[in-house]
Amino acid sequence: xxxxxxxxxxxxxxxxxxxxxxxxxxxxxxxxxxxxxxxxxxxxxxxxxxxxxxxxxxxxxxxxxxxxxxxxxxxxxxxxxxxxxxxxxxxxxxxxxxxxxxxxxxxxxxxxxxxxxxxxxxxxxxxxxxxxxxxxxxxxxxxxxxxxxxxxxxxxxxxxxxxxxxxxxxxxxxxxxxxxxxxxxxxxxxxx
Length: 192
Fold this sequence. Notes:
Residues 1-23 form the signal peptide. Keywords: Signal. It holds the Pfam family CueP. Helix content is 21%, strand content 34%. By secondary structure, the protein is an alpha+beta fold.
C-alpha cells in the first residue's frame, strides 16, 4: 500500500468516526429534549406504551416498525434499531370499537379496553409452542404489548370476562406491529 492510499484510508476512518460520533450526539440530544435520555429502544417502547394517555411527552410521535423505532418531534426525526432477535407487537382487543392500524403509534393509538383485566395466550404456528400465557392488564391506551421472537408467526388469544377473541401475528420483516382486529365475542355457554 502506498502512502497516499494509507493516508486516504486513515482519513476515511476518521471521517466515519466523526459522523458516527455526531449522529450519536444528535440522537442523545434529541432523546434528552423529549425526556427519554439514557434509554435504549426497548426501554423507550416499554416506557411510552405504558404512559398514561394524558401524559404523552412533548408532542412526540413514536412509530414501532419491525426493524426500527421512528421518533419525530417538530422538524427532527431519529430512527433507532430494534433488537436483532425480537419484535414488539402491540394488541388492542375490542368488543365494540376499533381502528385500522399496521405500525403501532406509541403516542396516539387508543384502544377500547383501557386498564382492563385480560388473559393472554400467544401460540407459535407450526410448533404449537406457548410463547406467553399470563393474566395481564391492558395499558391506559387500551393496548398490551409483547416482545416476540423475530420471524415467527402464530395466534394471540385474549379473554376478558366472558369475551374471547383471536388474532394472527407475524414478526417477519413485513409483519404488523399494531393488531387492532382482535374482536372479543361472548363465549358460548358450556352444554350441560
